[in-house]
Amino acid sequence: MSHSNFKAFVFDAYGTLFDVHSVIEKCNELYPGKGEAISRVWRQKQLEYSFLRQLMGKYATFLAITRDALHYACKEAGAELTEDTEKQLIDSYLKLQHYEETEEVLNKLQTYRTAIFSNGSFDMLNPLVDQSPFSSLLDEVLSVDEVKQFKPTPMSYQLVLDKLGVRREEVLFMSSNTWDIAGAASFGFYTAWINRQGKVMDELGVKPHYEYGDLRGILAHVE
Amino acid sequence: MSHSNFKAFVFDAYGTLFDVHSVIEKCNELYPGKGEAISRVWRQKQLEYSFLRQLMGKYATFLAITRDALHYACKEAGAELTEDTEKQLIDSYLKLQHYEETEEVLNKLQTYRTAIFSNGSFDMLNPLVDQSPFSSLLDEVLSVDEVKQFKPTPMSYQLVLDKLGVRREEVLFMSSNTWDIAGAASFGFYTAWINRQGKVMDELGVKPHYEYGDLRGILAHVE
């Protein structure tokens, strides 16, 4: 299939358009010297809990999971989480910094369907997108919460097709997360791995179709 | 329910009866200075790949996954994996050290049903158990490979009931892995978390019924 046949450009949110580790500053402000550890474990457990709850059949919203993961990260770091610090940290998750090239890239995709497709629930995804400069450049913001199926289950990716009215081979899906790329490629999307940190691809039996250092790489697929 | 009503004592294998990090020595022998990192990432990816493949609907045996995870760990560490070093490392996984108290504890459980219930496939689980001194003290060695459902899905734990012919509340399930404890408790087993390293319990909405520093703790439930 030629790249010019893509009809929809679909983006993961966390780690792909928004930098999840931009909370380090707030973590360090509240817990001096522990910010990096808390931020790292917070993200790790957030992902792990979404996978495990899906496997256990105990779905909870990504916001609830994000809060649970923060509790774990603070306990492990020996940092006391109060009602106030929890509120500040969760708030900072609603204002994550976006990667600088996002607006420019979305601007060049305006003749295509564009969407975010995220594990995030709308109560965290909408505030995040609304405060970004590219909110109006997206046709759709899609959340797995509508089907209560976290990525990378096949049923989660199906939501993209149902909502955008395209076929799977017409989708180019972007994510920085290797597990998300594996899930999307396994489902049948074309995939572009946004590998910002020069990481190693996971060994899950599927490879990304394309790999770029940042989002600008996907403009090679735009006419 | 009183503890004396337990009919079956069921043990996770990796991390619970056998020390997964006893491969560090072999890793260090083959890749000096990188053994700890390789061993840590190997285990982390082994677990992650089992979760992700289950979510993606792409089951593979735990032995295949263990090999994939080793490939990732070596790539990330910049260590070249040859056919020979791969064989040596996989072989060392079939000879993991057991925790010292295992034999004593299993000996005291001989009037109950005892079983291993593991994500490991028989091609790695059987050699491991056979080379241990307590092989004859176990009634059953159960593998999720029979149902192609990795823990912590409810369908995986169901295998224990089907094979042992007991009801879920008659089972005391032991694991060092917090995600396994969460899955088993969520399914309806009684659970004893063997917390050897004083870790923090995960925030998955379920707690272990009991927590012990090693396997001897469960002898409190033996008449």
Kindly list the characteristics that best describe this protein:
homodimer; 223 residues; alpha/beta; Rossmann fold; DNA polymerase, domain 1; 6-stranded parallel β-sheet; 8 helices; 6 strands; 41% helix; globular
Give the low-confidence spans of chain A. none
Please give the domain count of chain A: 2
CATH class of the largest domain in chain A: Alpha Beta
The helix/strand order of chain A is EHHHHHEHEHEHEE
Largest interface between protein chains, with number of residues from each side = A-B, 31 and 31 residues
Task: Trace the largest sheet of chain A across and list its strands.
Answer: 3-2-1-4-5-6
Give the rounded overall mean pLDDT of chain A. 96
Let me know the largest β-sheet of chain A: 6 strands, parallel
- Number-wise, the strands of chain A total 6
The amount of beta strand of chain A, in percent, is 5-15%
Q: How would you characterize the overall build of this protein?
A:
The structure is a homodimer of 223-residue chains. With 223 residues, the first copy, chain A, is of the alpha/beta class. Chain A has two domains: 3-19 and 97-221, HAD superfamily/HAD-like (Rossmann fold, 3-Layer(aba) Sandwich), CATH 3.40.50.1000; 21-92, Putative phosphatase, domain 2 (DNA polymerase, domain 1, Orthogonal Bundle). The first copy, chain A, contains eight helices and six strands, in the order βαααααβαβαβαββ. Chain A has helices at 24-30, 35-56, 62-77, 83-93, 102-107, 122-130, 154-164, 178-187, and strands at residues 8-11, 113-118, 140-143, 171-175, 190-194, 210-212. Chain A has a six-stranded parallel beta sheet with strand order 3-2-1-4-5-6, with helices on both faces. In chain A, β2, α6 and β3 (140-143) form a beta-alpha-beta unit. The longest helix of chain A is centred in the N-terminal third of the chain and has 22 residues, at 35-56. Chain A is globular, with a radius of gyration of 17 Å. The interface between A and B is medium-sized, with 31 and 31 residues.
